[in-house]
Amino acid sequence: MNLAAIAEPQYETATIEVAGATAICDPRGALYFADDDLLVVSDLHLEKGSSLARRGIFAPPYDTGSTLSVLADIVAQYRPQAVISLGDSFHDAEGAARLPLVYREALLEMMSGRDWFWIAGNHDPDAPHDLPGECVRELALGDLIFRHEPSRGRAPGEIAGHLHPGARIVRRGRSVRRACFACDGERLIMPAFGAYTGTLNIRDRAYAGLFAAERLVAYMLGRNSVYPIAGTALR
After folding, report:
1. CATH number of 11-233, picked from 1.10.1030, 3.30.460, 3.90.1150, 3.60.21
2. Residues 41, 46, 49, CA angle at the centre, nearest 5°?
3. Looking at residue 107, what is its pLDDT?
4. Given pLDDT bands bounded at 50, 70 and 90, which one contains residue 2?
5. Residues forming a β-bridge with 138
6. pLDDT for 196
7. Cβ distance 220 to 25 under 8 Å?
């Protein structure tokens, strides 16, 4: 009996369509386009713990290791030809330079043999120090456009991050709030992937005008599954 196989979690994904392109929403917070063999993650915020420590705010220094461990599992599972990190990959401009050697080596191993794109974010506007990959402001692929901050008004095919979307539902008097993919079929906003990132409710005014309310779906991230919830059911 293979006890390791029994203990290995089974993940139930959800299929999503944005601007005619089909992708898989993974409950660990990644998006995979099988037709393009492309994996997308957003807002890793690597080295957030060390960034806070520099300002006298002490948190357990395990965020980078935890985040990269989950990312390594996802990369090993999907084996994508290309990866897009959708901005705020590092928590500040010096985050990549502070990256401990063990984490740098783990990241380089993941990057080896595949195309890797760093989208510039508001926390990390410049190319990460001493790491391969291509740093760009945005990236177009067919009818899709990948950028860090969502545009105001209509933006067909836009896939963005930055806002750390979360969704809240109430069932039988109990409130449940989770990170989510937010999509109305035209635009998608990614959940934050980093271990030390929070969420902003997609009913917050920061999302005003970004989605067609009648088509909005929150793909809420459970422990091992993704749960599509109509926007009209959110609180």
Report:
1. 3.60.21
2. 140
3. 98
4. very low
5. 147
6. 93
7. no
